[in-house]
User: Fold Acetoin utilization protein AcuC from Labedaea rhizosphaerae.
Amino acid sequence: MGDGSTAAVVWDKGLLAYDLGGDHPFNPVRLELTIRLAKALGVLDGVELLVPEPASDDELERIHDVGYVTAVREAPLVGWDLRHGLGTADNPVFDRMHEATSLVVGGSLLAAEKIASGAVDRAVSIAGGLHHAMRDHAAGFCVYNDVAVAISWLLDHGFDRIAYIDVDVHHGDGVQAAFYDDPRVLTISLHQHPSSLWPGTGLPTELGNGAAEGTAVNIPLPPGTKDPAWLRAFHAVVPSLLGTFQPQLLVTQCGVDSHDEDPLADLSLSVDGHRAIYRALRELAQKHAGGRWLAVGGGGYQLLRVVPRSWTHLIATVLDRDVDPSVSVPSEWLDPVRELAPRAVLPVTMGEDKDTAFQPWGDGAGLAVDKAIADVRRAVFPLHGLDPDDPRD
Ligand SMILES: [Zn+2]
Assistant:
């Protein structure tokens, strides 16, 4: 890589076992199609894939109650009166649920370990990003919170200032909750406004408790927000906070359900916008976090047209092998997908010909997103010694 960064990709077919079954939108085919597209484009040529082991109970219990871990392990055998959010439409019980979810956690932990040991500067596990899982219950398709476990592990292995950035369309509530009292972890979530989307949290007034006040940051965006407005909000808030917080590591949840075609939510980003986000995250890791960047996946339910392209861009960005949006989607990838879904309109190129250029906030343009930006800056910036009204901050 040009700047001397090293990077690793966590992947193993075993991760496909996190399968909520039936018509559930969280379908592991999205992971398989992503890896196949990345391979078809040569993005993974010569890259050794890191194969994870399941996380141990001790690792899971960094974040989760013992009783919950037991409930998850026993759920496929019990089948009734499960509690803990298990056995619902969102979080159905499936065979070997504990083992499959532990492996997802193990993937994010392996990525964290490689960065902590100095073996690599960056690592990505697209199977990770189960950001809604809570201490004692499953939520929003998430059983164990792999990313919170990985951050907790990092806090015990040489890191005491970690910035977590969550760009999934849903609020990163589980990760926020895990570190709501911990000033060592800055959590920043950009999401569709909670008045119009589950889980209904993520207002700018959620700031963190006690000494951690100001280390929970929430940027709720209006439905219909497109790439330029999303990026305007991101750049109006995130770089300044990273500049003052000075993280040693960036952890990012890279859900792609913010796409215009996603069936579960109503933001209007494009694959090009996702690519621009990843490039911005990489630049921020270089500038503010010593080049260290741990990226995980997350939501994303347009399985054929969006997730494979967007997460191929994520992997490529982590590896410094950026793929131009004009590059054709290879027939090697398209042909089997066409057989799988003969009626689907499949993508032709790696982009959508969308302009992601944006005007930086502070130009007084009075865009719809500017109220959201002002609300966040006014709530958070003074707690970091920053001026909410000064565009230079
Ligand atoms: Zn989501």
Observations:
- The first helix runs from residue 29 to 40.
- The beta strands are 7-10, 49-50, 122-125, 162-166, 185-192, 216-221, 249-253, 293-296.
